[in-house]
Amino acid sequence: VMLRQALELRANGPVSDAAFAEALARHRALMAKPEGGTMIVPYLSDYTLSITYSPTHNNGWVVTFDDITERREAERRIQHMALHDGLTGLANRIRYIQRLDLGIQEADIKQANVAVINIDLDRFKEVNDVHGHAVGDLVLVALSHRMSAAIQAEECVARFGGDEFAAMKIYEHPDELNDFISRLENCFKSP
Asked: C-alpha distances in angstroms, 137 versus 96, 127, 144, 166?
């Protein structure tokens, strides 16, 4: 009964007998292991439980339920920080290279092309020198928001540092690339 209630809470409503049987089988599989085991169970988007089965010396079991929501959220934040620029939220160099590698593989499969574009802001040092780094940061953030809004799901824009950005796109026809470049250029036209 408790497992079905937990599943219904997780699903935010009734669960099928098949889903219940599958979950019960997963729990029994952990109990069948002499060393026990742990499973991680996300419940909606609100929280995540770690359920651990530990055998006792008298052939019994101790089952612990730990709320690991905060730990999972911290892991997600750390993962995001490792792959994104702290100021702009754009992909960083590491994430860009990952996306580029995947893009090259995808382009090989599709027999398509990959465009790699370097974007360097001319005279950006003057903005920092004349108006200060805080204003320079605001300019970088504004440009990053514009570029993020201009790209499509399969495209990527990254900040490599300072005023240096990079973009990539998989394309089959030159018109697709021209459209991508045009959308990026438009991000720099208005003040």
From this structure: 21, 10, 10, 18
